[in-house]
Each structure stands twice: as C-alpha cells, then as structure tokens.
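Students often ask what a 'structure token' actually looks like in practice. Rather than answer in the abstract, let us consider Metallophosphoesterase, a protein of 242 residues. Its sequence is given first.
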Amino acid sequence: MKAILFADIHANLSAFEAVLADIEKRYRPDSMISLGDFIDYGMRSNEIIQRMQDVKIPLIANLKGNHEKALIDGELFRFSSERGRVMSTYTRSHLNQFSIDYIDNVMQEPMQKLEIDGYNVLLLHGSIEDPYWGKLTPSKIEDERYQEYDYVISGHIHQPFKIDVFFKADNSTMRNQKRTTFINPGSVGQPRNHNPFAQYVYIDFQTGETHFNTVPYDIEAEQALFPEEIDKFYSERLKFGI
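Now compare that with the structural description of the same chain:
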C-alpha cells in the first residue's frame, strides 16, 4: 500500500490545498491517513472539513486530535495558555453543525490499530499513554509498549521524524531484535520545526520507501484572515514555523 500521512492541518486551507496539489502532481497513493487536528488555531475549520468531502483518495484512518476533543467536550483546562483557551472558544463559536457532526460521528478515536501489507501499524494522535494530549517525541520512543508494532505513526508535536528502534526479542533469525519504525509527518498547517511550509509524508509500506515533503504556500493570505480579537501570536508563528 502506498499512503499519504498527514497531521495537524489546524484550519489552514491554503496549506492543505498546496499539499493536495503536490500529491496530485507527484504521487498515485492508494490511501490517506489523517492523524488529527483538522481544526483550531487557524481561521478555516469549517472549510477544511468541507474540503475533505471532495478528496478522492480513500481516507482509511481519520483520527480525532486534542483540538477536536477540546471543542466538543469543552476540556479547555488542558491547554497550556490562556490564549489557547480563548482561541478554542473562538473556533467553537464559529463551527457549523456539519462540522460538529463530522467530528462527533465520522472522526475516530485517536488510537487505531491497522494491518497494512502484513505489518502491524499503530496510529496515534498523541502517545500510547495519552492518545489525545501525550507527546511522542524521539526521547520517548523506546517505551516497550510499542515493541509489538512494526510502525508507530503519530502527530501532535508538529515536528517530523523517522526513527527505527530495535527492541530486544527472542528471535535468533533476526539476531534477537525486533524493529519498530516511528514516523511523525509533521504538520500541514502549523509546522514547529522552524520550516514554515506545509509538511506531509508519502510511504510505500511494502518497500519502506518514505518521502518527507515540504510544500510552499501563500502564508500571507492565510495570515490576513485573522481578526483583531485573536492573539497575533497565532498568525505570526505561521511565517516562522514555530
């Protein structure tokens, strides 16, 4: 299976359109996997959800993120700043009923297990200990709870990486090692790796071929949509990738 992995669009339609155009130009994927956070931080949450209805590539996993959970459940206390709570409240007040129903009834819980090309694949928005809010950073990937999976694919931290971990295993044929590949595709709409452009991953699960892609988009057009009542931090960060 050839798949597109993406996460954390965060209501940035310009970035998402740039990614879709890049995919069409470069690849012929069998499927797409979304790791959560379509909404919030940006100004076009409804538009992202509506745009997803027109994407022709099958979406075989569509995880909720912590921002979907916060807006539906009202759990604003988990945000680390007051501006984050204000932003979430603003987004919630602008969501239409179609978007609310989509989040409630279509998007999946943030930890899903799939078998792809004979591989055991764990999909997460966050981490295995906290699928919504946990941060699966490179420093936490040696947790033995991940050992049973061939691939662990996560979002949430907005920083792309691919790392192989070789766990100890009772398998003399493989020199008593078990490989687990960890992948984070980064963020489509709000990267935090000091690269402001839209980011996603193409992977061929059968061969292991993996491409990390970075796509320019019109950042200023997206920034211009922010109203004055929203902290300028959220528009300014787009041009720095922070």
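One point worth highlighting: The domain at 2-239 is CATH 3.60.21.10 (Purple Acid Phosphatase; chain A, domain 2). Ask yourself how you might have guessed this from the sequence alone, and why that guess would often be unreliable.
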